[in-house]
Specification:
By secondary structure, the protein is mostly helical. It has eleven helices and three strands; from the N terminus they run H-H-H-H-H-H-H-H-E-E-H-E-H-H.
Amino acid sequence: MSEEPERRDAGGESTLTVLLAGGVNLAIAVMKAVAGVITGSGAMLSEAAHSVADTFTEILLLTALRRSGRPADVVHPFGYGKERYFWSLLAAVSIFASGATFALYEGFSTVFGEPVEQTSPIVGYVVLALAFVLESVSWTQAFRQVRRGAAEQNRTIWKFLRYIDDPAPKTVFLEDSAALIGLVLAFAGLFLHHVTGSAVYDGVASILIGVLLAVVAYVLGRTNLRLLIGRQADLPVLRGIREHLAGAPEIESVVDLQTMLLGTDQILVCARVDFDDALGAADVERACVRLTAELHDEFSDVTEVFIEPVPRSDPELRAAVLARYGEIAKRYGR
């Protein structure tokens, strides 16, 4: 079966996840804003800002999915896969800039500013309950995609999220999880304000929502930064590529192996290998062509392969490899 349909299916599921989350967040943002104005709740207004930030996030993620799928051209011979990471990084910045900042401002204003009288808290309770139901629908779709991906890679959900190379489902899953937690915090602030008459609880809830959004933004920003600057392939894939090359009859030693994620489901492989000295130039060429095809077949994410013949005894090359990998290089006999 070709790898292209699999990639299209994965991209289609990510698009569905993002579209569903975007529609839900837009509807919730309007409800929260109206309820925030009616009730005078700072936590409710913070949650409205939270949903607005999430809506902008989905727009940026849709942009990422669309632009990263463009084919390679003369200017970008390796394609546009990394654009997904750039727009996803902007989405993380959006969460912090528009969501966390407003929530923190609203929270501190409520705690240290003039007391605000609460009105019609029932409206707030109803809106929060509806928002929780709608967010649960979006969260369920994101969780299904994450759980399916983790099962396919035989990993736990948390380990899958740590090493995932598609930021869209991770972003939606984390922001929806934060949204559900934020709704609970907003409910607690609204309820305690209602019971005690003190707006401090409402302000504290806003501050906690702001901190929550800042943490999510940091995690997503760090993830996309690593992908954007060129993260290597996952260790199981890296080991598999090394073992495949080392097992080739024409190769005496894999001197150096470098990989980089070019985008979602796109891996660049650069291998420096020491071929059997008895081989002729034509034999080496045929071996390189065959090994490239075998790596494409065995590892569906491998899209580019470069194999360079080098002598393993070269001191400068060995020093460069040891400087990059240290003790790991010695362990593999580089």
